[in-house]
């Protein structure tokens, strides 16, 4: 490799210099990747502050986004199904910006390039290692699929945070509707109160209130929330609200019934998890506990038998 580069450039290049250049490129691309991540992961408060920021700063940020979107056809996949799947995962992770999918694929491309640089550095430093091919495959695999794994984990973490706040939100919603507030006013009050302990759920409820004020029907707004969050267990709430609005039933009674059903489902899910624990414990017992038991119980007898055969 050093001789090939020296012949091409006419400059004497050592392996150490190549390693330093590779490390420099890897660090530079890693900084850019970290910048993409930090720019995409922002809280709701930061986004509101940015809306009030200097127009010149916002214009410069929009130029970068426009540049990424203009060149996005070069690095984004052609499959519409794959793009739609990534778009749903980004929504589940709380990234609703129009340029989120372009930023994700740009980050994935940078991650792949960094993995290639790291693989090149490993090839130069561990040329004599018998595990070189394994290391190179692991590095390239991480560069290709690590962004997808992180995105999937972020989406599941946000779903769990929203799921933990739903029982409290339903209880508050029942109390507000039974006290005389209308459903939209009660939902707005719950969104303000729940934002302190469950900001993700508060954002979603606030989005529903905004959509309803713009003319979207309440069941449709909740269906869009299910699409954004991926929480399919809320489909029962949508159907019950739609049925109550059609027949003119009491919203508070409908919410109370759904709250009881939702608690029963949570208890059943907890019992199901508890029932699976003994089956899952069998594998650690086979691997760790039983071998030690057999060593203690049968080991002395085996030693005695071997000593008598000597």
From TrEMBL:
Compartments in which it is found: Cell membrane
Keyword tags: Cell membrane, Membrane, Transmembrane, Transmembrane helix
UniProt cross-references to InterPro entries, sorted A to Z: T2SS_GspF_dom
Membrane topology of this protein: Multi-pass membrane protein
Residue ranges of domain Type II secretion system protein GspF in the record: 170-297
Pfam families: T2SSF
Name this protein carries in UniProt: Type II secretion system F family protein
